[in-house]
Amino acid sequence: MTLQARLTLYFVLLAVLMVTTISAINLGNEMQAKFDDTLTRAVSFRRLAMSAVKEALDRDRTLPIQEALRRPALVDYFQNIAFDSGEIEELAVVDPDTNLILLDTDPGAVGQEREKFADFEPLVKQAGWYQKLRALRNPTGRYQLETPLEAPPFRLSVRAVINPGLIEDDILRSLKQNGKVALGALVGAVIATFLFSTVAFRPLGVLRRQLDLVMSGHFEPEIPAEGKPGSNEFSIMASKVSLLGQRLRGAQFEVSDLRGNIDRLLQDLEDAVFIFNREHRLVFVSGSVKKFLGKERADLGDAGMEDIFPSSTALGLLIAHAAETGGAVRNRRVAGVLLSVDLLANAPGAPRDGSGFLVRLRDPEAQRKIGRELQTADRMAAISRISGGVAHEVKNPLNAMLLHVEVARAKLSHGDTDVAPQMEIISREILRLDRVVKTFLDFTRPVELNLTQVPLPELVGEIVDLARPQADAARIRISAHQESEGAEVRIDRDLLKQAVLNIVVNAMQAMPDGGELRFESSVREDTAEIRVGDTGAGIPPELRDKIFRLYYTTKKDGSGIGLAMTFRIVQLHDGTIDFTSEPGKGTTFFIRLPIAV
Ligand SMILES: Nc1ncnc2c1ncn2[C@@H]1O[C@H](COP(=O)(O)OP(=O)(O)O)[C@@H](O)[C@H]1O
Ligand SMILES: [Mg+2]
Hints:
By secondary structure, the protein is of the alpha+beta class. The protein is built from 17 helices and 17 strands.
């Protein structure tokens, strides 16, 4: 039922209630008035009758009472009174002791004994409206009004018999009139309510049409003319709706922009990306899905997670498990692909159950290809980083050789043939040059890695054991703190040990007067980290870019090869190396390696 219909109905019901109540009260009052009226009249007629009887008795005291009352004139008078009164059906003079009728409007009743009726006065004065109504409706019900007649020596009383049924006609008439007024009031109420609600609801109808327009995508509905100028509630509402429409349009543009961008992004993505909603139905999928599922993107529609990845398959089982527990999956290798599952939170700080799932499938081969390209670029950058010191290292022996060739030539031109010392130096420098070149070539030559899966704590433990004797001798305390239980790395064991040992040697050299050597290992997401810290002299910030260069050293007998080699080895393992240092306090080197999948 519409609000308008409901409102009309309520108003009509209210009107009915009011009209009936007023009519009932009115009717009750009228009934009471009628009864009062009847009583008054009955009392006055009875009084008339009484004085007529007295007069008759006084006039002829010799006659026996029955005779005196049997006079036709008196009977006539009685009948006239009763006829005039309306509701008085019978007027009689009775002997109260014997109940014998001495005079009656009905001459046949004289000399008979008559039953007594209920008293009329209490009915008028005390009875409730319901009893009165019953008295009206009862066709055989009679009441009486009886008063003793003071006419000594006789004991007589005058009785008026009243038929309330005769009042009913009057009441009915007034009821009809009342009913007409009530009906008129009701019809008026219905019409008034209908007109009122129509007027009152018209603005609502306009607003509803406005909202319908907004909902059907017509975002800027006009503000209707009647709402424009005023500042009433309706015009405020109308302009709010129009504002809402504008906002919605803005939001929709943003969303479609965003969607378009994401779409383009995902089209070009190597990975297949699926977004499922809370009910595990597909809401988004990237273009590359065909490569993985052999199905077109459009064919998937809003298929369920179970339909796309049946849990009878290893992949489906993993996804279903992740969806159920809400736990993320990272680059897990299943059925030839790398799988990641993430819970999507609906908003920052939203509850854990989130609003859906992001499933990513990645082709490891494509991944490796990209990895190899990146590696090549990395390697070239690394070589240039390492080779910064090589030119210097080549120039030194060349200069020395040039110098001694000049010296030898001068000697020979003066006839001095003792150039053996110069030849000695030159050949030594050639050897040195040869060594430099060989080392450099070693660095740039591709290395065949002998990869094995090694538990990280075990690797670090072995390095600690190797470092211990030398550390003891140099009064260096070793501490190890490992938080990498169960993590494994795929490495060339000997090469990587060498890489870390180079750092350890530097650390010990930085603490000639003893100190502390800290070993730590940890795992974060898919990366393992090995940290080696010392409490030595530290590395000045201006040397930050130089220390990894080949041949760069600050030590008298240093070779400058250690860190360059370490850098190269870590890089061969797809890892990274970095350090933090505080001059005077110490240095910590970090090696990060990918965790074996
Ligand atoms: N733990 C360290 N504390 C201070 N300086 C360091 C540390 N590690 C490396 N260095 C600096 O880096 C330079 C290069 O180190 P490296 O390549 O091993 O060559 P070398 O040890 O032969 O000098 C060192 O000469 C030193 O100045
Ligand atoms: Mg070194």
